[in-house]
Structures are given as C-alpha cells and as structure tokens.
Amino acid sequence: MKFAVITFPGSNCDHDIYYAVGTVMGADVDFVSHHETSLAGYDVVLLPGGFSYGDYLRCGAIARFSNIMPAVIEFAKAGKPVFGTCNGFQILLEAGLLPGALKPNAQLKFVCDTIPLNVCQTETMFTNAYEKDTCIQLPIAHGEGNYYCDEETLAQLKENKQIIFTYAGENPNGSLENIAGITNEAGNVLGMMPHPERAMEELLGSTDGVKFFQSIINHLRKVTV
Ligand SMILES: NC(=O)CC[C@H](N)C(=O)O
Asked: What is the ipTM of this complex?
C-alpha cells in the first residue's frame, strides 16, 4: 500500500501530509514532483495544501496544467482514491475532477482557525472509521474556500450523498449550505478545505484527522484482500 504526495511549486502542507501518513499512520509514502508523468505503483494520491504557483489567476488554476495532472486524472478515472486538502481541493475543482468552484472567502480575508465539522457520511473510503453523526475539530487556513455550485449540481450532490463534511459552527467563508468537503459521483475523489493532516497529535490540539487516514487504509485493506 503506497501513498503519493504530489508537490507543486508553492505547496506548503506537503510535509505535513507526508508526516501524517508516513510517521503517524506508518504507511509507505513518497513525494512525487509535479514534473513527473506517471503514478504507476501508487494506491492513493494526495494533493496537499499550499499556494501553488502563488495562487495566481485563481487558486489551483495553474497547477491544474502540471505534467503530473493527466496521470492524476487517469488514476481518478480508474476509481482509485484521490484526496485534496485546501489547495489540493482547489486543484481538483480546476481539473474538473470535482463539481463546482471555490470563490474568495465572503469576508475577503484569509481565515486561520480550528473549527467544528459534521461528518455527514461515514460509508465512504475516506470516512468509514468515524462514528455516524460525529462532530470533529480540524484546522482551516485559506483565502478561497467559499464553495459554490449551481442548483442542479447541489441537488445531485445531495441525491448522491456527495457532501461529506459541513461546517458545524459559524460558516467561516460563506460556503453554500456550509459545505466543507465533497466527493465526485463515484466517491473515490474527495476535496475539502479543512486539514485532517494537521490534526494528528494531541500536542497540536486534535487527533480527529487520524480516523480520516485510517479510513483510507481500511478501504485499501478491504479491496486488496
Ligand atoms: N492552506 C492552503 O492550502 C491555502 C489554500 C489557498 N492558497 C487559499 O488561500 O485559499
């Protein structure tokens, strides 16, 4: 079982997610540069948070054209797990792997906080280790996290149970219906603004991210048995 952490110029949560998966969860993990064109040998792809290409144009809009992205798209189309946090979520939306868009935060300010989140679905490859109806605490740190989609897309997200995380307290960025994280229709691509990789140790304030990565590992064990 091997994880790939894709690194873009300006990624700044790549080491956090590498540490979360490699050191805390004890899984095999590599950094894979945006220059690469193949993901052969990997079972999970992680797109980290950060400020890829300085957030120019729109967050994620340039990274989406990186050399590695055709391989990420092919990996996703094959039904394998792809996870993007924060800037990773922005890149997945720009690449068309998830529906909708992220606009600048409603208050036009960068938000940096730890906030409560509802885990809305637990029968997914990313959340199966959480109890049903759980509320967890995860950090956020972003300027463009205001999720938006049209009414038809919103109806589909609800119908297909693609809304996985919602903000449980005050909406920190103006997101439609408090949406914090969604999957694609097939359920193997998940993007979210909060950072589970920064909630892995009591010393840092929360361990609520551990079950997120445990869920992916549970899923892989099940499908590879
Ligand atoms: N932590 C991050 O990934 C930041 C995301 C993005 N650059 C923003 O400010 O919205």
From this structure: 0.95
